[in-house]
Amino acid sequence: MVLGPLFGSTPVTSLLSILALGFVLGMRHATDPDHVVAVTTIVSRERGVRGAALLGSVWGVGHTATLLLVGGAMVFFRLVVPPRLGLAMEFAVALMLIALGLLNVTGAIERIDAAAHDKPAAEAAPPFGLHLGRLLRSLFVGVVHGLAGSAAIALLVLTTIRDARWAVLYLLVFGIGTIAGMMLITTALVVPLQAAARQGTAWPRRIARITGAVSLAFGLFLAWRIGVADGLFSAHPTWRPE
Known about the structure:
Elements: H1 12-29, H2 33-43, H3 49-77, H4 83-105, H5 108-117, H6 132-160, H7 164-197, H8 202-229
Helix pairs in contact: 1-7, 2-4, 2-6, 2-7, 2-8, 3-6, 3-7, 4-6, 4-8, 6-7
């Protein structure tokens, strides 16, 4: 069976297989190191499975929305991303990881949540409740990651699917897979956090500091790689979409 003039001459079975692959690749995309480090920092103070899954889904929604907007524009208008712009979008992820790390290491996020709810810092995070600040942080982090990855994903799609409408559908399915994958990751992360919380009230704070330090170190590494090794701040930047 072959698609009609609306979608060209690519067999339906091939396109459906590509869409199914897009969902799987979207789930795998959620496991990228920078994604895992970022969401680990965000959920480090979450104790409920439902709350962790919600944070993961909000991250995925932000990621998917940016992917559809930026990647969709690239697909429909055949936009070309200059190397310096591509590197700059990835550098934004490094800066975000550094900021998240500093906020966790210094305890600033804890104090912000406490001040927002007029509670002592130790009582700022109810076991199954989520503050609006956490949801907005998760959404913002997802948007930044989506912005950094949209160009590379769109370029990959353009080499595989010629019809723009099917390409955008692929991006949507890919995004849904990313949401599902991130929900699984955040849900899995909260299990050891719950176990640590049962060991004493000091452990959640220690875990937040540890995850913050990892985020800070990884962000600094990415900043060096993108800014120096890939030449973002040089005259001849080298961008390799991944």
